[in-house]
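job 3f2a | input accepted
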Amino acid sequence: MRRSDLVQHKEKEKGAVTRTSQIVFGERQHLLRVLDSLEGTDLPIARMQQERRTLEDLIHARTRELNQINTAWDEKIGLVLSADAKPEMLEKLVKQAPEEDFYLLRLISEHPRANAKTLNKLGKHPYGAIRENVARHPNADAGTLTWLSKDRSQPLWYLVAFNPNTPTPLQRRLRDRLKKLGENQLAR
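job 3f2a | predicted structure (188 res):
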């Protein structure tokens, strides 16, 4: 899990932490690796069977949790990862996905066939990694990039500065800002 996956939520202030699909999927992947590792060990049969059952139960629990976040989660991930993914289908998946389906939405924000309309919607998502992907995406439009350049919660302006779809005047301003930062660092 990347550090940026530890997103701050209002629920955390109330004591409850939202488990996003990014977190649950990561847990399931780790459990699958542990199961693979277990398969290659020389343990007594009874212990091997018990540990396998326990791991399989935990893996199934994570799968159920993913399906509670977004129905038919694995199938939707498969659609996004398919070479046949169409921009309209990606747009529909974004509209249907709950906000806490970080993993699905992050995959779509990286997808080469995501269109400008889809990226505009994703550019407003609270998860920083999704906004970063939109800021560097070659299909992001000028309006989305301009909006992202004003985001003060993280340095998206840097990514926007090097996106070829960024309007030239904005690109110049952002690159000047970068140049000034570099000069300030050298002066120290």
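job 3f2a | The mean pLDDT is 90.
job 3f2a | closed
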